[in-house]
Amino acid sequence: MSGIVAAWSPGCDVMEIEEIMTQNTHASVAPEAGARVLSGMQPSADSLHLGNYVGALLNWVSVQETYDAFFFIPDLHGITAPHDPADLRARTRNTAAQFIAGGIDVERSTLFVQSHVPEHAQLAWVLTCITGMGEASRMTQFKDKSLRQGADSASVGLLSYPMLMAADILLYRPHGVPVGEDQKQHVELARNLAQRFNQRFGGTFRVPDPFIPDVGARIYDLQDPGTKMSKSASSPNGLLNVMDTDKQIAKKIKSAVTDDGAEIRFDREAKPGVSNLLSIYSAVTGRAVADVVAQYQGKLYGHLKVDLAEVVVAALGPVRDRAQQLLADPAELDALLARGAQKAREVASPVLAEAYANVGFLPAAP
Ligand code: AMP
Ligand code: TRP
User: Taking the model in full, what pTM does it have?
Assistant: First the structure.
């Protein structure tokens, strides 16, 4: 069960990942080997950033060793906010290429694009009809995003997004859903909808558990280390991207904000900038933070930055190069995704048929 130690029990308080790492008071409910897991990441930028890479993709890569893993690119979710069609198409392919380059093994795992599996949208409608208006409008992400977009311009799609996500999950009857903490509430809704559907219409869905990764769970902005690294960053220099050149990576790390004083130690409160650099170092090398701190006793921030640039380039460079190779042959990449969608449909289609039958839809004659 590498990569996963902590799961959220329903209703548990939101804890800082750091707390989980140190306390780990929650019982691990990681399923037995061979159990199924499913996760997805939106194709919302040309490149994954280091937070996505470390906080999500690396975890997926370790998860696929032990579990029957389904990973997909939720392009249907990608139109819940205004978007450009050509960008969406390109980003869907780019994201797939980065997943494979980052280590998703398409022989072992099932990798697909959401819109290639129509069952997702079909089940989403049914789940939407058993979700309360209040329940949907209480979702934190909806409240945040609709506030940002303005209540009048926010789409109904943004409101129904969690029901689509519930459909993504429930169609595959997974045991676990590896997600970042920001998605925990949506997995919780999926659990509630599964239970509600099963109760009203008969047992159809497995009630899945969210899994929160144990390490490298949070990477902060290089220019603003109090804020999570995110594609909505105020400065592009705050983001390390998987598709960045070696030079861009080195330059961004060199200009990263550090803290007063010269001591290199891990202290999120007093030294957010240096602590973030240490977390990144630890995440890309797999070495413990304490070990990295020990190595830099008596050294300057500059030393840490030079070495950090080297280890980040060593980690991301080959992923970027491999992704570019894959993107150079889009037909082959699209063929891989088509095979993934076919494998996904073999699982999703009978589950949708069962849900349709149970909800009372008259089956079409064969
Ligand atoms: P997003 O780009 O916000 O759609 O993020 C997709 C997933 O990447 C999240 O659910 C997290 O698992 C992970 N992630 C995003 N930002 C970070 C970050 N700054 N640190 C760690 N993980 C992150
Ligand atoms: N909503 C998730 C995000 O923005 C992506 C996602 C869509 C997802 N469907 C999912 C994640 C199903 C896990 C399972 O990050």
Answer: 0.90
